[in-house]
């Protein structure tokens, strides 16, 4: 029978024997690809530990100094980007090195591929070294010299600019007037002489058949040439209402002048009723009431009946009887009888 002492001795010896060792998890015969998918598609081989460690897969130890040894050293704004901005899904090979490979060419190839002629890796803006005349054939002079790039190259103007290779005034500016017989814009509008509206001071209106005289010269162009509406014709009624309703004809210049419309220069002798004495200084509308200019009676009582009623009733003419007022009233300046 085995003694208790023998059993305890056997158990102690069994516990002292080392157990058989299993395989190391990162042993020499195990590669990273055994457990991990190679996001770089074999671009760096099996040397994963050249950038990654078993303590942490990211961030990597591939820094700016090591990137400087590649075909694309990181400088300027590129140093602030995350790796996946240029290496989507960990791609390391067959990546573009030119600007257009990552950046959209806003100029659509019109300025070539040498982006660094104007832009820097320190920032796309401001643009330096760009001579507008040499690169586009369009000199920035006058008011164009103070305009921001976005004024012409963004928004509606920018869309119109991208659709043409030869921009002109109408690419950015919409004319508020009709075609001036094919005349170039700069025949009236000049870049170095104020705003577009200043062209009114340089435009010679005489060839149009309607010379601008006196007060017409002070009127804004849009007053007679609205952006919407029919083109004016060279007659007064095109812009002015005829308060005479055609009674005085259409030759307004017979009575009115551009300097003072209300200062009428009508020769009343032509109306077969010459203005004499006090009639000469009487306002027109005192006799031509309600804009009646033709068909007016010329008898004294037609205008002065109220005054006649104030005279002695013993005189028949004061009651409307037919008579000649001038038989008694000899003065043209007063009703008083001498």
Task: Please outline what is shown here.
The chain is mainly α and 338 residues long.
Coarse morphology: rod-shaped
Radius of gyration: 50 Å
Beta-strand segment tally: 0
**Number of distinct helices:** 10
**Averaging pLDDT over every residue, what do you get?**
79
Q: Which structural class do the helices and strands define?
A: mainly alpha
Major beta sheet, specifics?
A: none
* Distance between the first and last residues' Cα: 183 Å
Q: What is the string of SSEs from the N terminus onward?
A: HHHHHHHHHH
Oligomer: single chain
Percent strand:
under 5%
Query: Can you give the helix content as a percent range?
Result: 10-25%
Low-pLDDT parts are: 1-19
Overview features:
single chain, 18% helix, mainly alpha
Write structural notes for this entry.
The longest helix is centred in the first third of the chain and has 13 residues, at 4-16. The protein is mainly alpha-helical. It has 10 helices and no strands. The N and C termini lie far apart (183 Å). It is rod-shaped, with a radius of gyration of 50 Å. The relative contact order is 0.04. Among the domains are: 134-164 and 186-203, no CATH class; 265-327, no CATH class. It has helices spanning 4-16, 64-67, 83-86, 132-136, 149-153, 155-162, 169-172, 221-224, 284-287, 300-309. The model is unreliable at 1-19 (pLDDT under 50).
């Amino acid at each position: 029978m085995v003694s208790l002492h023998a059993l305890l001795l056997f158990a102690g010896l069994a516990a002292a024997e080392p157990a058989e060792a299993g395989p190391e998890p990162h042993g020499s015969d195990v590669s990273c690809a055994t457990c991990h998918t190679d996001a770089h598609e074999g671009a760096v081989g099996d040397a994963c530990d050249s950038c990654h460690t078993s303590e942490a897969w990211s961030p990597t130890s591939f820094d700016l100094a090591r990137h400087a040894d590649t075909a694309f050293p990181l400088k300027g704004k590129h140093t602030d980007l995350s790796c996946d901005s240029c290496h989507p899904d960990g791609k390391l090979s067959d990546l573009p090195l030119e600007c257009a490979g990552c950046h959209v060419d806003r100029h659509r190839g019109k300025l070539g591929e040498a982006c660094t002629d104007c832009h820097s890796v320190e920032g796309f803006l401001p643009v330096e070294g760009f001579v507008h005349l040499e690169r586009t054939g369009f000199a920035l002079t006058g008011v164009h010299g103070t305009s921001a790039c976005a004024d012409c190259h963004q928004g509606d103007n920018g869309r119109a600019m991208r659709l043409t290779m030869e921009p002109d005034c109408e690419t950015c500016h919409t004319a508020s007037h009709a075609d001036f017989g094919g005349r170039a814009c700069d025949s009236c509008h000049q870049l170095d002489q104020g705003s577009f509206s200043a062209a009114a001071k340089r435009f010679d209106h005489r060839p149009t058949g309607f010379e601008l005289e006196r007060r017409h010269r002070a009127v804004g162009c849009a007053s007679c040439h609205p952006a919407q509406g029919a083109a004016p014709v060279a007659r007064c009624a095109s812009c002015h209402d005829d308060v005479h309703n055609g009674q005085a004809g259409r030759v307004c210049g017979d009575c009115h002048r551009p300097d003072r419309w209300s200062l009428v220069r009508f020769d009343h002798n032509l109306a077969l009723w010459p203005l004499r004495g006090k009639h000469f200084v009487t306002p027109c509308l005192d006799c031509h009431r309600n804009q009646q200019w033709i068909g007016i009676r010329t008898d004294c009582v037609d205008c002065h009946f109220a005054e006649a009623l104030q005279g002695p009733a013993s005189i028949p003419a004061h009651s409307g009887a037919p008579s000649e007022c001038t038989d008694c009233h000899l003065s043209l300046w007063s009703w008083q009888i001498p």
